[in-house]
Design a protein that fits this description.
The complex is a heterodimer. By secondary structure, chain A is an alpha/beta fold. Chain A is 21% helix and 29% strand. Chain A has one domain: 2-Layer Sandwich (Beta Polymerase, domain 2). Chain A is elongated, with a radius of gyration of 17 Å. Chain B is of the alpha/beta class. Classes of the chains: A alpha/beta, B alpha/beta.
Chain lengths: 159, 167
């Protein structure tokens, strides 16, 4: 019954920001408003859930849906051997969300990756630059509307 | 009584050849290679280069990690657009004569990576002499490609100062 309690505790601690919660493939999933991401993350890290590890942080593009983007965070609790997935939806018009670098240092490069490939702005990130693509690269290649055949070579290519 | 003496070249003491074919023979069995290894094909390169398949049997045993000292550039693995200027610089740093081997499907054509990041074949950046297909190629295929390159070197249309012959 432990799985229930972390979701219930979250709902108690944040009565307004939790949109939906449930389990998927054995892990708890919670969808929150993006405004409360930082307090929720701090609560998960230092609260009763004890989610000390940020496993992964990524983004999903749903073209045609509003809000278009969805940030996905995976947390892991070493002491309890539990995982938790937190989702927050971000609209294309206001493509920014709080950075988790103040809580987990490994969020630094993960957020740079998401910024590089999806163009999400992270407020409070110390050094938000591209991670994979090079300077001068236009657009964000993992967005679904990035043209499939578009190439941006750095040097002249022979045909 | 002895018959008239037949004049014959003494056997086994000299051979007749052309200077260029002698040079080609010398060059093809002393290939110093520079492995530009970027991806999983590197495992097969290691297998081909080390004792089990032993690329040294074909005279290409010396791995030089400086492009200035090497003759054969082995491009082993996926080349991204971000990496393309590096590869071209390495190629330009090599001294003549030099040969390029595209090792594996990614270097040949980009392979399965038909996307924003990957160069669709290194022949878009540098000239390639031998293409070795396979994902990754087996070491036997690598040795086959090396032998093909040696045949090519043997019949190079260059003079010994590495100037292109004018036809």
């Amino acid at each position: 019954m432990e799985e229930k309690t972390i979701l219930e505790r979250l709902r108690q601690a944040f009565p307004t920001g939790i949109r939906e919660s449930g389990t998927s493939l054995g892990d708890e999933v919670v969808v929150i408003d993006k405004e409360i991401l930082l307090p929720v993350a701090a609560y998960l890290k230092d609260g009763p859930g004890d989610f000390k590890i940020l496993l992964d942080l990524t983004c999903v593009d749903f073209p045609g849906r509003e809000p278009r983007f969805e940030m996905v965070y995976h947390f892991f609790s070493l002491s309890r051997n539990r995982r938790l997935r937190v989702k927050a939806q971000v609209s294309e018009g206001e493509l920014r969300i709080a950075s988790l670098t103040s809580l987990w240092r490994n969020a630094d490069w993960l957020e740079r990756e998401v910024y590089d490939l999806f163009g999400v702005q992270f407020e409070g990130h110390p050094d938000l630059r591209r991670l994979f693509m090079y300077d001068g690269f236009e657009g964000h290649p993992l967005r679904k509307d990035y043209p499939l055949r578009r190439r941006q070579p750095l040097i002249h290519l022979k045909e | 009584m002895t018959g008239p003496k037949v004049k014959r070249p003494p056997s086994g003491q000299f051979i007749t050849t052309q200077f260029n074919s002698l040079l080609g023979w010398a060059r093809k069995f002393s290939l110093f290679h520079y492995p530009f290894v970027t991806a999983c094909c590197g495992m097969e390169y290691m297998s081909a280069a080390c004792a089990h398949f032993d690329i040294d049997r074909f005279g290409a045993g010396w791995t030089r990690f400086s492009p200035r000292q090497s003759d054969m550039l082995l491009v082993v693995g996926t080349i991204t657009h971000k990496e393309a200027p590096v590869l071209r610089t390495v190629y330009e740093q090599m001294t003549e004569p030099k040969w390029v081997v595209a090792f594996g499907t990614c270097a040949v054509s980009g392979g399965i990576y038909d996307n924003y990041a990957v160069v669709q074949g290194i022949d878009q950046i540098i000239p390639v002499d031998v293409y070795i297909p396979g994902c990754p190629p087996r070491p036997e295929t690598v040795l086959d490609g090396l032998i093909k390159l040696q045949e090519k070197i043997q019949h190079q249309e260059h003079d010994w100062r590495w100037k292109k012959k004018r036809s």
